Amino acid sequence: MAAPQDAIFALLADMAGHWALADQWTEVCELDSGGGTIRLRGPLGIRRIVRVRVCRRELPRLVEGEACLGERTRARVAWELASDGGRTSVTLSAWVERASWGDRVLLAAGGRRWLQRRFRAALRRLEPVLGVVCSAA
User: Fold this and answer.
1) What is 10-59 written as a DSSP string?
2) What's the CA gap between 137 and 134, in Å, rounded?
3) SS3 state of residue 115
């Protein structure tokens, strides 16, 4: 991305800024700098409430968070940033730490691929959002 690493880090480190990365599948219910609640709408009318929070910030290279669905499902999400010749490389990854039986079934039945598409879409929205943020600063 053409945006400076510190600008990308600032946006991602503050959960309140993540609303700008949401798409038609994601509704931000409540979000502040440390976390909040979002509603995911999936195919076939599937809806899930997710509690999210930032767990770790390592300026200027890492923002790591947690997403909890109910009491039984928890995943980690990491945004890793690296300076790359005047540009910034951004890697978004997630891994499930534990999942309820129902969530394991949803992931196996296509949920994992659906989430991968949502992550790719968020990465595509990141640069345009940062262009607006950087030009307004």
Assistant:
1) HHHHSGGGGGGG--TTEEEEEE-SSEEEEEEE-GGG-EEEEEEEEEEEET
2) 5
3) helix
Q: Which two tokens stand for residue 111?
A: 């949920």
Between CA 3 and CA 129 the distance in angstroms is 10
Residue with tokens 């999942």, as numbered in its chain: 99
Task: Compute the Cα dihedral for 31, 119, 56, 39 and give only its sign.
Answer: positive
**Upstream peptide bond of 128 is cis (omega within 30 degrees of 0):** no
Q: What is the pLDDT along the chain (137 residues), one digit of tens a residue?
A: 888 899 899 999 998 888 888 889 999 999 888 899 999 998 889 999 999 999 999 999 999 999 999 999 999 999 999 987 778 999 999 999 999 999 999 999 999 999 999 999 998 888 888 875 444 44
- Residues 48 and 35 sit within 8 Å (Cβ to Cβ): no
Distance between CA atoms of residues 95 and 77, nearest Å = 7
Ranges of H-type helices in 60-106: 101-106
